[in-house]
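ingest -> validate -> predict -> emit
validate: passed (alphabet ok, no gaps, 67 aa)
predict: started
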Amino acid sequence: GAAEGAIKARVASLVYFGTDTHCHLHLADGTEVVARLQSPADGESGLVQGQEVGITFVPGAAQRVEE
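emit:
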């Protein structure tokens, strides 16, 4: 299950960028969040489209980007 205090989200898509993978997530209210994850050496993140996940943030690590 998700960690205590985690925000529930669903994986919308995964985009591989070499050393990084961008995980596009949708929150229950429709908000889109993009998490930048370090790509594992084997290329398998363990995440799949449609998967329910819980997201947490290290204090100071989140950045808001407006379009």
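The chain is about 0% helix and 45% strand.
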